[in-house]
Amino acid sequence: MPQNVTIDLPIPPRLNAGLAAARQRNLEWMRQQKLVLGHSAARRYAFSAVADLAAYSYPDAAGDDLDLAFDTMGWFFLFDDLFDVPEGRQADEAVDVCQQLIALITHPSARRTHHGAPLVSAFADLWRRAKRGMSEEWQVRAAHNWVDYLSGNLTEEIDRRSWAPRDFATRMRIGHRTLGLIPSLDLAERVGHFEIPQIIWHSSHLDSMRRAAVDAVKLINEVMSLENDDARGDPNLVHCLVRQHRCSRQEAIKLAVALVQTAVSQLFEQTRQIPLFCSRLGLTGTEAEKVQRYATAMFTWIRGSYDWSRNNGRYSPRTANDLSPNLTGQLHPANLTPVSP
Prior knowledge:
This protein is mainly α. Helix content is 67%, strand content 0%.
């Protein structure tokens, strides 16, 4: 069972002490946003424990900041499952929502107070809360990263409709955009109430660090979600490794784990260079500390994604047994907001 795969990570585990209370507040927000309606839907959503990822990835957040993190993580997975439609169908609803979200971010209008799809109006609430207290420069950068994430999802959908790339490198490159880790690192700044120096974000050094972090989190996700993808007939990087290396499934999983550990080692090495990096740029002590906090957020996310993956209901055997190519995804609106007869 991939969820039981052990990955040795030299990063201490952490968990937000406010998990239980935040979980309840998140469910109430989901109901208010009309994303989860009815007792059956609430049980399904609670069992998935998708929003709990926030407690593992933002262990120091509290109050409204923790609620923003929980609501954003929950939203991510509902949006992701919107693309999981029965085999032979096209995810037209997901494409429409995606395009609405891009328009919302790139062409904001103060006069527009109502958004049609619940996922769009819910994101509008998240985006309004996320921008609060952040600089205009951060908002521009975060908006760009959200649009790249959304555009990446459109790329994946077009690939599904034509032919999905089967090689590891191409799927990893697309996965860097659709994983959502870059917007999640922006969120780490927001809930941590800090911003790295704006120009520093664009450096090759921090870009290399982010790539290593995304590699690690993406591969962890692919290993842990393997049985779900098998049940739905979806592509997975483990499958790519089987084909590329002409090896068994178990050998491919071991290779994926080794790649996670390599990425983490690279990130540690890059982090050790941060003092020199900051010194050469003439950063102040305060600015250098913010860069270190950004690096810590990457490590926290890697460890958090692993610990959450091993404990949630989303990647459990029960969920995999309930999935099928002929059904919508676990958290697709059809399963969370059933239409009354």
